[in-house]
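Limitations
The structure tokens in this dataset are predictions for the assembled complex, not deposited experimental models. Users should treat interface geometry with appropriate caution, especially where small molecules or nucleic acid strands are included. An illustrative entry is reproduced here so readers can see what is and is not provided.
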Amino acid sequence: MSVPAAQAWTVATYVLKQRLLRRKRYPLVLMLEPLLRCNLACAGCGKIQYPAHILKRNLPVADCLAAVEECGAPIVSIPGGEPLLYPHIEELVHELVALHKYVYVCTNAILLKEKLEAGVFAPSRYLSFSVHMDGLEPEHDEAVCRDGVYEQAAEGIRYAVAQGFRVTTNTTLFDNAEPLRVREFFDAMMDLGVEGMTISPGYGYQKAPDQEHFLGRARTTKLFAGVLGAKKRRWRFNQSPLFLQFLMGKQDYECTPWGNPLYNMFGWQRPCYLLQEGYASTFRQLMDETPWEEYGRASGNVHCQDCMVHSGHEPTAVNATFGSLKGLRDTAVATLTGRL
Amino acid sequence: MADDASLHGWEPTLGAELTLADVVEHAFGYRGDVTVDRMDGTRVVGYLYNRDASARKPFVQLFETKSGASLTLLYTAIANIRFTGRDAAAGQSYEAWKRSREEWAGSAKSRGG
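Predicted assembly:
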């Protein structure tokens, strides 16, 4: 596991505090979308199909900070849209770092080198760039529907690493992924010097163009068992090893839909990062008034049956680590041995 | 009733089989602007981004296209909703995406990629 000790300690103490307070539901990562526009139009993305006047909107920084305070999660992930297009990204990140939130700027990295050269960001243990990389050059450029993006992203990663920034990658795998190619991709990312990688199966957004290549549960576990089996020690993942075992079919977890709540210009999205069934005006309303029993695989909700996405299941894995001796033991064994 | 891909241009006729609440649900899933005809005869054009049919006073929320302002309208104030803006998610079927991919691959090959 590649999460730095200080960050792991922050998360661990946060989770233990919630458990001591006997809170049944609490967030781990706030997904903060300050804008919805992007400089790519990827086939598997259902986030950007909006009228132009919506795509032009930006959340005010004050609204972002109020959401961060209201939510209270120790980690803030900034996806979008493309966050480097957000005109206030410098101020937002600066403020979040000052609050000692662990910030992940989830970027396609097309603009990363340019922003770093302009001095928009300063290295900090609280700031990571999570660069979208869906495979080696041919696979990634195909996934983002534009050639040259892989190399731009790789250049951005190299530059950021050389400047002392924390850099991770985020990768979504669909059913056309070939395990051997994915394993080569992991080698390539480690060669670039990233701190760690995150991976997840894609989710079938209703509005995404590509509806054929999303994975069913059985295909997900088969693919990830092929990708992560006999894991190389040099591969570092910025994720819970229990979540990776879940993807391989070695753990059986339910979804924690409130674990990664999403805030954007529409409000607090119900019920989760992926399903878009409405918006609450406050975080408290989201937590108190959402019929959580209607979501997750056990609920029978048809939209949840094939979902194994990180945003719902990694919080479960983290809770499992701190919620039982078995979870703690499994995590420790996977961390120490490097095996999944 | 047309499916989501062809809601653009739809002007619903409300009645026993199609209620305002039904139309609001379609509008919530629609990725284009709508025109809300109000009971007082005025109209507002915008993107309907939220609704709550189970609230004590059911409401919709939209971002007005021209002003950008967020408006909250009660169901009781709405006469009808028309699907007047282009659907940003329409024409983006998997087949359309595959066609664009093939075009992209072809152009990449011609560039020596």
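Some entries come with short summary sentences. For this one: Chain A touches chain B at residues 43, 49-51, 53-54, 57, 141-142, 145-147, 206-207, 209-212, 265-267, 278-279 (CB under 8 Å).
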